[in-house]
Write a structure and sequence with these properties.
heterodimer, A: 316 residues, mainly alpha, MetI-like fold, 14 helices, B: 270 residues, 9 helices, 0% strand
Chain lengths: 316, 270
């Protein structure tokens, strides 16, 4: 059963990716002005140059043929060359990918470390001062766009108290960790707020159920009862963690610009501003792929966490 | 999640202040973008409670003037997406069947990717601009509204009053708009309010990246981005608009939660 569930999800992911690849290819036609001009960038538009561009990108062929040609290249890892730098798009992305992945992982880790305990405490102390404080903090965190949170953190912990560096990506593991702490924290604040909400809501719902009342009435140790409740609240929590990873990944766009970090996000903003379409298309597709993979992984985690999903029962 | 009463009161006060600034900012500080290059960038001091920025513009005045593009744009996004969401969610929930399946697959697809990424790519490729950013956000927000509305309509569909309206041989359109819609309105409005906070943040994010309002406009996201390099000269020039975004969005969320809870209580009371 489990294999069937996952196979269905994997097929669904492929279908979504296929549809989105059409959209990504179509981005080229969204830019104002003719496609030749867009691909030419800032170079002078002489008739010869336009002709060369047309031949190079096969612009005289029907759209469907060109889409398939583009897709063929993409599937082999060939995204063409950047209009802005003349570099191979694959190389440009490859050199910046690690930083963005590190930042996403670090941000997600901090969000889980901050959000999960607060949500759990809030649920067990429902209605008390701790819970209310956690709720208000969560709302404030969720309302803070990463770039604004980042600036507040910069002012507090880099300018006012000079504990952390203001800009740059850092050298070596220790330097990288130090340089990425404030950016990761800025990303984690909003994500942690989301996790507090999901965890608290899911746990509160479980704690109201009969089996918890009976377990308590039988005098089972509180920690064991908490364990039962947590295990059953795991599915919504996993959903939230998936959301956190994807929103953190999206947030890197803002954070890399705020902290001047050379990652995929700042590359996307630069390329979008410059209308460097091959890079924009490659990044859009790559980020979509990463997000789809995260969503698929969350589905795999469901089947591990909850046998009811594994055996195809309705979990609600 | 139940928020304490004082939080709601504070949030309402914040919204009243921001709303006043958004509507009457032009009258309160008519010359907010007036530059004074001889002053240059200064720390908070007499005459300038939050200091000035690189161009000698008073940060507090910029903040008041910046409320209008930040807040009214977000209002346009949440209202536009609520309207679109209702137009899709009502028939999807009421008619069901293939229209419903199609609408929900569309929503799934749209919601599978973070709205911010799509907004950056689409608005950026199309050249950016305030109204373009608003339009793109409306399209990206509508699926959430459509889902919420559809869910609420599904719940109403089997009620006796709908049955009665059907027996009177009223058209589906009439039943949807005149009978079902007023009953789901509180749910849709509460959702629009929560969307408003998200719209405020998203719009500010686009302005921050240079894809929203024009350069030099006194918009919160834009002012923040213009002054983010001045952290050592006058950090408030960048941090104050950032705090304005955070506080307003938080206040909207608090009020939205409160409204949603009231809508929920009313639903359960029936």
């Amino acid at each position: 059963m489990s294999a069937g569930f996952l196979a269905r999800r994997a097929l669904g992911t492929l279908a979504v990716l296929a549809i989105l690849s059409v959209g990504v290819f179509g981005l080229l036609y969204l830019a104002p002005g003719s496609v030749e001009r867009t691909l030419l960038g800032t170079r002078p538009a002489s008739p010869e140059a336009l002709e060369a561009i047309r031949a190079r990108y096969h612009l005289d062929e029907p759209v469907v043929t060109r889409y398939l040609r583009w897709l063929g290249g993409v599937l082999q890892g060939d995204f063409g060359t950047s209009i802005r730098t003349g570099m191979s798009v694959t190389d440009a992305i490859g050199s910046r990918l690690p930083l963005t992945l590190q930042l996403t992982a670090y941000g997600t880790l901090l969000a889980v470390l901050l959000g999960l305990p607060l949500g759990i405490v809030g649920a067990f102390r429902k209605g008390r001062a701790v819970d209310r404080a956690a709720s208000v903090t969560a709302v404030a965190g969720m309302s803070a766009p990463p770039f604004a949170a980042g600036l507040v953190l910069l002012m507090a912990f880099a300018v006012h108290l000079p504990w952390f560096p203001v800009y740059g990506a850092g050298e070596g593991f220790g330097g990288r960790l130090l340089h990425l702490t404030l950016p990761a924290l800025a990303l984690a604040i909003g994500a942690a707020g989301l996790l507090v909400r999901f965890t608290r809501t899911a746990l509160v719902r479980e704690l109201d159920k009969d089996y918890i009342v009976f377990a308590r009435a039988r005098g089972l140790p509180p920690l064991r009862v908490a364990g039962y409740a947590l295990r059953n609240a795991l599915i919504p929590i996993l959903t939230a963690v998936g959301l956190i990873v994807t929103s953190t990944l999206a947030g890197t766009v803002l954070i890399e610009v705020t902290f001047a970090l050379p990652g995929l996000g700042s590359l996307l903003v630069d390329s979008v501003t410059f209308k460097d379409m091959p890079v924009v298309q490659a990044l859009a597709l790559l980020l979509t792929l990463l997000i789809s993979l995260v969503n698929l992984l969350v589905d795999v985690a469901y089947t591990v966490a909850d046998p009811r999903v594994r055996f195809g029962e309705d979990t609600r | 999640m139940r928020l304490p009463g004082p939080a709601v009161a504070v949030a309402l006060l914040v919204l009243a202040a921001t709303g006043t600034a958004a509507l009457f900012g032009g009258l309160l500080v008519p010359d907010a973008t007036a530059q004074d290059l001889t002053t240059g960038i200064t720390f908070p001091g007499p005459g300038h409670p939050l200091g000035t920025d690189e161009l000698g513009r008073d940060v507090l005045r910029l903040l008041v003037a910046g409320a209008s593009t930040a807040v009214l744009g977000a209002l346009a996004v949440s209202a536009g997406s609520m309207l679109t969401g209702n137009l899709i969610g009502l028939p999807a929930g009421y008619l069901g069947g293939r229209a419903d399946a199609l609408a929900m697959r569309w929503a799934d697809l749209m919601l599978s990717i973070p709205a911010l990424l799509v907004a950056v790519v689409v608005a950026g490729v199309m050249g950016g601009g305030y109204w373009l950013a608003i339009l793109v956000l409306i399209v990206l927000f509508a699926p959430t509204d459509a889902r919420v509305v559809r869910g609420a309509v599904l719940e109403q569909r089997s009620r006796a009053y709908v049955e009665a309206a059907r027996l009177q041989n009223l058209t589906s359109w009439r039943i949807m708009t005149r009978h079902v819609w007023p009953n789901i309105l509180p749910v849709a409005l509460a959702n629009a309010f929560l969307n408003f906070a998200y719209a405020l943040v998203s719009l500010a994010s686009l302005s921050f990246l240079g894809l929203g309002v024009a350069a030099g406009s006194p918009d919160w996201g834009r002012t923040l981005s213009d002054n983010k390099g001045q952290l050592f000269a006058n950090p408030w020039a960048a941090v104050a608009p950032g705090l304005a975004i955070i506080i307003t969005a938080a206040a909207v969320t608090v009020v939205g939660d409160w409204l949603q809870e009231r809508a929920e209580r009313r639903r359960l009371a029936r």
